[in-house]
Amino acid sequence: MVNPGDFSQAKDEELVRLTLDNRDNFLYLVDRYKGKLLSYIKRLTNVNDDDAEDILQDVFIKVYLNLNDFNDGLKFSSWIYRIAHNQVISNHRKLKARPEGYLSSIDDQAAQNLMADTDIVAGADLGLLRQNISKILNQLDYKYREVLVLKFLEEKNYQEISDIIKKPPGTVASTINKAKEEFRQEMVRQKIILSVS
Amino acid sequence: MDTNDFDQKLVDKIKHDNITPRPRWHFLLKDYVVRVTGALALLVGSAAVSVMIYLFKYNDWEIQEETHKTLLEFFLLTLPYFWLILLALFIFLLYYNLKHTKRGYRYPVWFIASAAFLVSVILGGVFYLAGLGEKIDTVLGEKAPLYEKVINRHFDFWFNPAEGRLIGIVLSKDDGQAFVLLDPSGSEWQVISKDEHFPLEELRVKQPINLIGQVIGDNEFQAEVVHPVRPGGGFWLRPRPRMMKTCQTDSCPLPPPPGFPAPR
Predict the structure, then answer these.
(1) At residue B226, what are phi and psi to the nearest 5 degrees?
(2) ipTM of the complex as predicted
(3) Does A108-189 carry CATH code 1.10.1740.10?
């Protein structure tokens, strides 16, 4: 664990520069992002904790290797999420062997974000929905799941999502709309709402 | 997650595998390669456009009624397919490179493809005005294999005396209505012109021309239409491996023109 020091309050861009000067400073970045990225990886993949940590380690190795590729034209959080996104895709074989019933937990705030979208929840039994969000997300195609996770669970805006998955903002917006529609269709299939309006 | 354990494992892996950040020049070089490749694709695509404009301008529009049943047929048969395919390939390459720049992903496919196409066309127009289109066609005419079969199929179309079409350069002319023409196979033709719209005084030696008419004898052609040709000028600078008289008496390595038997 990194002991809080002068650099724990430094901006991400400053920490990148400090890491390039001294490898030990990398742990400040690790400490800042490991929790967020681990829950992101689990939400996308539903692998177990050990596999998720393996993927997370690969992510940070890639981050460290490519630090000189980061520039101020992009937010550091978008850049590191992009690396995590790409690493998840390249670990696809691990993802295919999803253990039955292994679902990541969705915390209350994340569930609240999803449920605050009236397009999704119109006509839904909110109690049932809260219990079944993970299950519903699991049934969606990966391309829909990833944008819903980024928008509602990771609370990224359209530009950030565009930078993470490297698609135009317009494409992100239309994919999110389709993803919401697919989410509602899945709610109907799981009898959380009676029909799609 | 045991956070201390994770941090320690990560640090151990970095130290054990001696992992260090890739140097900045590595990423700069990648960016540079993408940009240079994109720029080259733009230049080649634009060069293709400049040649197409040149070929389009001198496409025998004035005599298309004599050679084709309809304007549509003429247009479809005379499209420069080689250059269109080349342009499509390099526009795709340009699009691919633009998409892989640092910010390229922010723009939709249609925008980047349209931009690649428009810039190629505009730059191609500039190249044409600077004379590059004609220059490229001339050089290819002189040096490129299969020029007359693939790159500029007008040659193939016009070199068909049996169907009343002939192409060649003027070797010499007399004081009357006759002149000598050298065709792409190296054969010489005695040509009598009946074209009132093209006085023979306007013909120059070594000028490439198309003829519409009919064969009236052994390597004799009567031309109803005489039309100057501009594309393919470089083709006539190639060495001619045979002369007509030699091929009449000796064995000839080249085939005769279409519709004509091999010399005995």
Answers:
(1) -120, 125
(2) 0.80
(3) no
